Amino acid sequence: MALHDSVLEEFGLAPRWVRRGMAAQPAAVSEATEAASGHDAAGAAAVEPETRHAADSDAAGSRSAARDRAAPTRVSESSRPVQDGRPNERRTQPAQPEAQTRSQPPTTATLHQPKPPTQPAPASRAPEQSSSFDAPPDDDFAWFDDLPTEVPGHGHAPSEPRREAPQPPAIHTLDWDALSERVAGCQSCRLCEKRTNTVFGVGDHNADWMLIGEAPGENEDRQGEPFVGQAGKLLDNMLRSLTLARDTNVYIANVIKCRPPGNRNPEPDEVARCEPYLQRQVALVKPKLIVALGRFAAQSLLKTEASISSLRGRVHEYEGVPVIVTYHPAYLLRSLPDKAKAWADLCLARDTWRAAGGAPANPPK
């Protein structure tokens, strides 16, 4: 017959009885271990070992009370509070007196308690750089070139549009001074590379007669005036026979304003680039008659390749002005018999001028 607890306490046998009950617990622990060996690790962690031990044990109520006092309070993995995206690693246990903790041996609950899973070290919370971003090299500053300049107190200065060089006015709009300046600085063709002076023209800007030669020679290039030297003197004598003069009712110009090297014939592209200047001179003078001196001048004005002999003796037209073709004075210096033919051409030019309303001027002194 079991003694009452109060009697055991009176005889001081209660601690011995408890120790005997504790000695029987290792047998129960071994039984619980064999029962749980058929299960996997995850199932063993979830099953409460204390329940199976209570079902198989035939211990008295004092043993159950001792187990209930010794069993710690556990919190399941799913019910743990979550902090910063990961479960709390500490388990909540009730506070126990220090003496009771030392006196209680490990129970089956503590023996089969699963170890908490090892948590990886928390990663840094700094925002990750996108791997798709291609940063420019350290020495590449080209991407700063288009940034507007910052003005203190006024923000960024507005970018100024690119200013293109102003186009010069069209040749057909120039007056005498502007046209002469344009010819003096002309670099439209390769003849500008070897010239000494441009040969613009000379004479009366309101003349009825306009004489046009082909290109400057050596003397003309040096002095900057057309028809100088021996050929110029012969031309002055021819004009005097018609009661005309270089500075009286006559304007003299050339198709080409720069001397070709070696006195060669001008190239077609050189004529094309220089022709607008001559066209503007004719428009400014407004002559009643044009006399083409030499083959090249006649072919350039009339846009033909016909010989000078076939062009003589007839009235042609350039820019609405009558044109008479005759020999160049330099050619007449080498071929004296053709002077008579040149005189006939001058007589035809005088008659044409009179027919156009021209009146003879006072004979030059």
Q: What does this protein structure show overall?
A:
- It is a single chain.
- With 365 residues, the chain is of the alpha/beta class.
- The chain has a domain at 197-355: Uracil-DNA Glycosylase, subunit E.
- Helices cover 39% and strands 10% of the residues.
- It is built from 16 helices and 10 strands.
- It has helices spanning 5-11, 14-23, 25-36, 41-46, 49-56, 61-70, 98-103, 108-111, 176-184, 218-223, 229-241, 268-285, 295-302, 308-311, 329-334, 339-355; strands at 82-83, 86-87, 150-151, 155-156, 202-203, 209-213, 250-254, 289-293, 315-318, 321-326.
- The strands form 3 sheets. It has a 6-stranded mixed sheet, sandwiched between helices.
- A hairpin with a 2-residue loop joins β1 (82-83) and β2 (86-87).
- It is elongated.
- Residues 38-60, 70-95, 97-103, 108-112 and 141-147 have low confidence and may be disordered.
Question: Key terms for this structure?
Answer:
10% strand, Uracil-DNA Glycosylase, subunit E, 6-stranded mixed β-sheet, single chain, 365 residues, 10 strands, elongated, alpha/beta, two-stranded antiparallel sheet, 16 helices, 39% helix
